[in-house]
Write a structure and sequence with these properties.
single chain, 227 residues, alpha/beta, 10 helices, 18% strand
Amino acid sequence: MRKNIFLALDFNSLSKALDITEKTRDYLGGIKIGLELYSVIGLAGVKEFEKFKIPIFLDTKIFDIPNQVSKTIKIISKIKSIQYFTIHALGSLEMLEAAKKAASGTHLEFLAVSILTSWNKTNLEQIGITQNIHNQVRTLIKLANKAKLSGVIASAQDISLAREISKKIKIFCPGIRGDQKTQDQKRTLSYKEFNAIADDKCFAVIGRPIYEGDPLKNIKKIINSAK
């Protein structure tokens, strides 16, 4: 079984996060530590997950001037257990390249955030972007690819679009649901639908459908739904 699920620990309790990770680790490709949890536990707390020996994806979606990004990356890259780190593609090619350069010679891989899965055409228009979502996603993935980043964060609906740009880039898809619909994610698929179009460089990022209720039972059910 290919482990292509990253568990999104989108809450603020370290003890809860450690407990759920322990229960589900055998079925995971890795874990995602989001901004809420990271704000509480910091880098010291991130180190608590090293014992599970699975990839850690730190999702703070950095977006700043290149100099500040470089300084931040030099700190983050010292934590060996953090394999992936998110950075906004909207921050410019210069910012993406500065991050890549700052991590040169380290293990750290970057995932460029394209367009949040909670966004729609109206959200883009509100910040002055007039092209449709798919074209904007295409523009940002091209930028990430030009900067030679390892991967992108994109809706599962945009996997084929991303593959038109690069056959090798990793694609992490947030908001993947079990079999129920979500309220705060507009461009999502079920895990079964995701698996039908995903290749071996695609990963599903799943949170509440796993950790709400019985995590072990939930993740087994989700995996079985795709068989």
